């Protein structure tokens, strides 16, 4: 289960073109969805544009299947001077009530100024 501090950030359904030859969804697809979700949270925290600078950890726990409904939950876990780290957990809803944790990772984003250079985060 997710922590009470996590926020449902993105819900999406993979398309048939996102499937690999094993019948699972490409890892790169879920990684990109996580980056979008984390970027939404980081952008809000930074009060402006951000760029992904690192994926500190990434764990594929279970495959994502065609017709799964993917929910991505996010939580800020660390703030630096110019960067913010976001923990992302991905759950797949399968059929009725089955809910499976499929992926987890920590993505780090840096706040950007108008010249696309790092800038300080606003105060909390």
TrEMBL record:
Keywords annotated in UniProt: Hydrolase
Keyword Hydrolase: yes
GO biological process: acyl-CoA metabolic process; fatty acid catabolic process
Presence of the UniProt keyword Hydrolase in the record: yes
Record domain HotDog ACOT-type: where: 4-115
A Pfam cross-reference name: 4HBT
Protein name: Acyl-CoA thioesterase
Organism: Tardibacter chloracetimidivorans
